[in-house]
Amino acid sequence: MRKTLTAVLLALTLPSLALAMPEGGPRHGGEHGMRLFKELDLSKAQQREMRQLMGEQMKNRHAITQRYLDKLPAAERKALQDELKAAREQQHDAMRALLEPEQQEAFDAHLKKMQERRAEREAFMTWKAEQAQKAE
C-alpha cells in the first residue's frame, strides 16, 4: 500500500511540472524527449509518432493510477487530494518568487487559465456521470 501511494503521489504531481515548460515547447518528454529526438536524428514523422506513443503511455499511467485511487477509502482520497493541492500551491509560490513582476503577472494569468480549464473539466465529468446514470 505504501509503494502504491508513493507511485500515486508521484504520478499526480507530474502535471505541476508542466508549468516549467515553455508555451510552445514539447508536450511529452520535455527536454529529455527533444534531446533524444536529436540524438536519434528522427524525422518529423518519427517525432510525431514518438510523441503519440509517449502520450498514450501517459494516458495509460493515468488510468492505472486512477484505478488504485478509486480503491482508496474516501477519507484517504480526500487527504491525498488536500496534500497534493498544498504541495502544488507551495511549488507555485516558490516558482512565482523567482519571477520578475511582469513575469509574475503572466504566471498568475496562466495559473488562472489552468484553474478555469480544471473547473470546466470537472463540470463536464460531473455532467457526463449524470448522463451515464440517466442512461441506466
From TrEMBL:
Secretion signal span: 1-20
Pfam families cross-referenced by the UniProt entry: LTXXQ
Keyword terms of this UniProt record: Signal
Designated name of the protein: LTXXQ domain protein
InterPro entries the record matches: LTXXQ
